[in-house]
Queue: 2 jobs
Job 1
Amino acid sequence: MSTIESSPIDTVIASRQSIRAYKKDPVPAGLIEHVLDMASRAPSATNMQPWKVYVLTGNALKRLTDAVCTAFDNEPEKHQPEYSYYPDPPFEPYLSRRRKVGQDMYSLIGIAREDHVKRHQQQRRNFEFFGAPAGFIFTIDRKLPCVNFIDYGAFFENLMLSAKSHGLDTCLQAFWSDYHLIIREQLSLPAEEMVLAGMAIGYAATDAPINRLATDREPVSAFATFLDK
Ligand SMILES: Cc1cc2nc3c(=O)[nH]c(=O)nc-3n(C[C@H](O)[C@H](O)[C@H](O)COP(=O)(O)O)c2cc1C
């Protein structure tokens, strides 16, 4: 445990968590624009700024969520992400960490491993942006190399931290990439844009059990090697 006093930014970082149930209260359009502006202050390799964002609210959000939920209910096997987000084959220590967060989440909301109907319903919440009044779809030009995915990570974190600092919560969602065909059609995406992820943004439903999910982290000593000789 560090003895360094937390800075205001440390406090925001430590208070962010993925939120998977939201109040209906709308997010002011100016605030959404502000957090995107802050996100875009992220560093990027040679300042290429590879991010492209679709902001969905109101009818546009409903049209997309309805279309993707219909596909998720009726033809999930037809939809695959444009990039792989699980290593194949899975391996340690990543497999155990992935399993733990899934088990913790489902046990918190009382859904058994074999309850496929309830698991489907919970996974479906992803495609409703977990009830958030606003959602983002992020794309990247598929011709860009790996380095620009690093840029996008910095952009995402800036976005989530700026949102948190204004009382908003978020959940970054790679699951959306599975339904890129439908998103492409709904948002009229040009062919060169690859659907990277979605993100729910709004005000947390503080009494929802799922929002009590606390995730742990390995200590610094487990992932950092300090070299001074
Ligand atoms: C690239 C990325 C994709 C993610 N995709 C999803 C997703 O599709 N659905 C979801 O519920 N959470 C998703 N998450 C949230 C992670 O599960 C979460 O960040 C992780 O368990 C740590 O928890 P925390 O964000 O509360 O600290 C994603 C996070 C990242 C960084």
Job 2
Amino acid sequence: MSTHEIVILGGNLGGLAVAHYLLKHVVPALPKSRHYHITVITPNKKAFFKIAAPRVIAAPSKISTSQILPSIDTAFSSYTGIDFVHGRATRIDPSTGTIEVSIGESVKYDSLVIATGSKYASDLWNSIEDDAMEKLYSEVHEQISKAQTILIAGGGAVGVELAAEVAENFPSKKVTLLTGSARPLPRLSEKSSRRATQQLGSLGVRIMNNHRVTSQKKTGAGTTKITAGEFEEDTDVFIDATGGKPNSGFLPSSWLNENGYVTVNKETLRGTGPEMENVYAIGEVASYTTGSILDIQDGVKALASSIAIDLGLKRKQVSYKLFVKGQVVSIGSRGGVFNLGGWSLPSFFVWLLKSRDMMIGGAEKYIGGAKWD
Ligand SMILES: Cc1cc2nc3c(=O)[nH]c(=O)nc-3n(C[C@H](O)[C@H](O)[C@H](O)COP(=O)(O)OP(=O)(O)OC[C@H]3O[C@@H](n4cnc5c(N)ncnc54)[C@H](O)[C@@H]3O)c2cc1C
């Protein structure tokens, strides 16, 4: 019997969601005249629930590193028909349907899902090889506990959340947040930025707006000299929390838009470039992304329905539609700012939804697969 190989590139929130969803809802419904198999190519054996990472960095006694790195093997132990290749895709040849992997293997695909997410300047936010990830987190815990000054670059949600967590958990340390724009959280309303500024201020965070880091140099004294235009300061710990870029450098350039995102139809998540028949993309690497987990939550059903239809199942196309545009930014453990469809909601809702536990229950739900039942 011939085998149809579905390859998923990237084993974190998007890629694993697609794998669970296909195994639960699509593969069992396909005709038994063919064999269907899924291969996930990803360097990490553990998933990375990034949402809780800012608290883990500042307060590992509240949420431990292991809680945000759940085992992928355990999450998929109840299925058959899926295997993992632990390496990075380095090149794709669409004419032969072949992927070269960093560990020297090459893997053939009949259907391909690209879910390789974003790459950040700091590996604290990247899903890298497991040992390196655990080592990095234990190093940052030690560095922060010894430091007197901590400087964080990046005025988006990640930088704001991290600065707040560090300041709340280490009130005697000097925490500085450099933002590259006129206010923190520039993607949110001015009112939300004002509230965020106020809340960060009450935790003791020094905010310096319109400061983009231009250089960072280790000094002989073990500190890092940070330069941002006219600003120059030595800091004990520097953390880059500026935004990521799509992890797409290994893909054919004809599959990417001018900003490096994989071009997809934003309703079906099918690839729209040349030789992209049976190629799909989900999450932060794809051109429809809003940079949030909602892209995956609302996108997985659309992508799975595209694959089901393309494999011959008579199903109605489910279209991706972002349920509502919003952002919840936790500022310490007591609340934060919440923009929903252009409205600012009270800090209490942020506490309820996020700040009290940084949604850590979601790690098990998303990675374990219950979310996709
Ligand atoms: C600190 C932080 C906090 C966040 N908080 C929130 C939040 O509160 N709410 C929210 O909605 N969103 C939040 N986000 C965004 C959210 O985490 C992302 O939108 C989500 O992780 C995107 O999932 P993904 O699967 O597309 O990409 P990723 O999670 O980036 O996963 C990509 C996967 O691909 C793998 N990979 C990379 N290159 C290759 C390659 N060449 N070959 C094979 N595999 C590869 C990686 O190792 C990884 O496993 C946060 C992000 C960060 C960094």
